[in-house]
Amino acid sequence: MVSTIQNTDVKQKEADRAVVVAVTSRAVFDCGADDGDEVCEVGVAFPLLQALQRVNERLLEENPSESLLFDVVLITSDSQQQQQSSRIISSTRHHGLEISSFCFSSEEDFTESLLKNNVHLFLTTDRDEAAQASQKGVFSALLNGKVASSEQLRVVFCGDAVIRTDAEPPSASQDAAQSFWAQLGEMRRRFGMLDSPLSLVLLTSRGGRESCGTALQTLRSRGVNMDEAYSLAGAPRSPILSLLRPHFLLINHLQD
Amino acid sequence: MGTPGQREGERRELSGDTLGFSVDLRKSRGGEMSQNNRDTLTARGPDLTSISNRAPWEDARMKLKPSTPTRKPKPPKPENAITIGVSARVLFNMEKEQQIYKQQGLEDYIKYQVEHETQPFSPGPAFSFVKALEAVNTQLRELYPDSEELFDVVLMTNNHAYVGLRLINTINHHQLFIERFCMTGGNSPIGYLKAYHTNLYLSSDPDKVREALEEGIAAATMFTQEKITEVSDTQLRVAFDGDAVLFSDESERIYKAHGLEKFFEHEKAHENKPLDHGPLKCFLEALGKLQKKFYGKGQRMDCPIRTYLVTARSAASSGTRALKTLRSWGLEIDEALFLAGAPKGPMLEKIRPHIFFDDQMFHVEGAAEIGTVACHVPYGISQAMPKKGINDKETSSAPK
């Protein structure tokens, strides 16, 4: 059973233009035992939501009638959190988060709720959840739980996935991936080279400069221009990733 | 070839083709011939002993190499390699683009770069050094096919990824073996230098170089040079100044504060006390590690890597402490050239290093004038008091 509650505090986005990002409430709020407190602590996804909000603010600054905005939807699928629904809603209000709607579903139905809400990107800290959603054709990514608050939304594209996509016949999930990249690319183009509220970063792990070059060209042909590019050619990823501080990593197959 | 008279004090006249006083430190080890007796040594081609150890079919394969499609060797793991980080502007000549950036701003600069994406840049000041590193790698791979103790050149640039394709096209055009890069889009490269265990960082930006030095990474600033003389393509030659480059600046401080006489006294008194290490010491150490690999295969005489100390110190006095310090560190240097205050240019002209490190712009500029690729190590007391136009240390005139 899937139910959606709209957040009346927040102006709803245009359905066909907005970039719908769904985040699990477990990642946004840390609702411990019900100790009578109306408000939950913030979770690991909090800096991400703040960064998404900042992008929206800047987009509206450039153009007050901008419709290409992030539309954040909170997904609650585990029963424990469902019982906390009122706390989740009041916490949202308390922290001033721009969440458009709250979706509650059972664990089996959560992918259904994602599809129903036309989610373009599903973010979770749970690898299995991400894989499940991906199988049903919802573009999913793992939230980086280690990001400190940052001024800029940083998205890392894992280039090896970009190339692989072209070689294989596209799956539903890959189509979803490509349309998300295109949306991000368009959003990025609203801003100049400097002082952008979002930064698109390409990281190729295995191939050398050729792989990276091909990825840059492929992305550019889809209207996605990278700000930064890193070619590791087999060097360890984690030291570089910890410097890049992405809010989330876009990889095609959740294998690494 | 008459013997020129020698002045009092530490200055030695330059005679014949021996400029300055050169100590070949190889001489003191075993019964090896000095490199100075070049005529009596056989050609500096491949070491004959190593060829005879190879099977005949291996030689045949070597001849085929250029035409057969070679599989690109895998880059070594950063912790095993000697990583050299180079910025785009020292690897390539981007003068024109730099002007556009300064005069017209970032957006026009990017637009220009993208429009000229298929036009490769021409070589910059670090280019011949990088080529020489690759030549050493080729030889190391032949001798030790499974070893990862190799040079690894990483492009570390502040440029935005928009310039990426032009840089990649240029690397392809010049057939450089650079597979790793960081295009940070304006962010500081220092963290990435550390992540790659960088052993040496070369950049045209003195601020970044200083930042790297502060983080304990050997680094130097490079400049575009009008004249670059030809260098060897069979032997990598790296030359270092002594004080404030290989060694700390402690002795330079004494000289600057108390003058020449005090400097001599101090060095003599502390002859047996090793100097503290300077920012480039660890790079010399890394080179030594690779040199030993060649010695292990019988290539001591014509080692593809050769190191030089080019110092204003004097062989007879203050030089002793320098040599003893190196010895105490367990480091070897192939040739120590004690100039006793003479200009470094003529000596550098003679040895033709691929790169020369000095902490004083005066020497860097002097080297560049004769076509040596010289880079500045912005470290130590000399940075606070630039010495342009003032004579070198050990002149007989009274100190200021």
TrEMBL record, chain A:
<dbReference type="InterPro" id="IPR010394">
    <property type="entry name" value="5-nucleotidase"/>
</dbReference>
<dbReference type="GO" id="GO:0008253">
    <property type="term" value="F:5'-nucleotidase activity"/>
</dbReference>
<dbReference type="GO" id="GO:0005829">
    <property type="term" value="C:cytosol"/>
</dbReference>
<dbReference type="GO" id="GO:0000166">
    <property type="term" value="F:nucleotide binding"/>
</dbReference>
<dbReference type="GO" id="GO:0046085">
    <property type="term" value="P:adenosine metabolic process"/>
</dbReference>
<dbReference type="Pfam" id="PF06189">
    <property type="entry name" value="5-nucleotidase"/>
</dbReference>
<dbReference type="GO" id="GO:0000287">
    <property type="term" value="F:magnesium ion binding"/>
</dbReference>
<protein>
    <recommendedName>
        <fullName>Cytosolic 5'-nucleotidase 1A-like</fullName>
    </recommendedName>
</protein>
<dbReference type="GO" id="GO:0009117">
    <property type="term" value="P:nucleotide metabolic process"/>
</dbReference>
UniProtKB/TrEMBL annotation, chain B:
<dbReference type="InterPro" id="IPR010394">
    <property type="entry name" value="5-nucleotidase"/>
</dbReference>
<feature type="region of interest" description="Disordered">
    <location>
        <begin position="1"/>
        <end position="80"/>
    </location>
</feature>
<dbReference type="GO" id="GO:0009117">
    <property type="term" value="P:nucleotide metabolic process"/>
</dbReference>
<dbReference type="GO" id="GO:0008253">
    <property type="term" value="F:5'-nucleotidase activity"/>
</dbReference>
<dbReference type="Pfam" id="PF06189">
    <property type="entry name" value="5-nucleotidase"/>
</dbReference>
<dbReference type="GO" id="GO:0000166">
    <property type="term" value="F:nucleotide binding"/>
</dbReference>
<dbReference type="GO" id="GO:0005829">
    <property type="term" value="C:cytosol"/>
</dbReference>
<dbReference type="GO" id="GO:0046085">
    <property type="term" value="P:adenosine metabolic process"/>
</dbReference>
<dbReference type="GO" id="GO:0000287">
    <property type="term" value="F:magnesium ion binding"/>
</dbReference>
<protein>
    <recommendedName>
        <fullName>Cytosolic 5'-nucleotidase 1A</fullName>
    </recommendedName>
</protein>
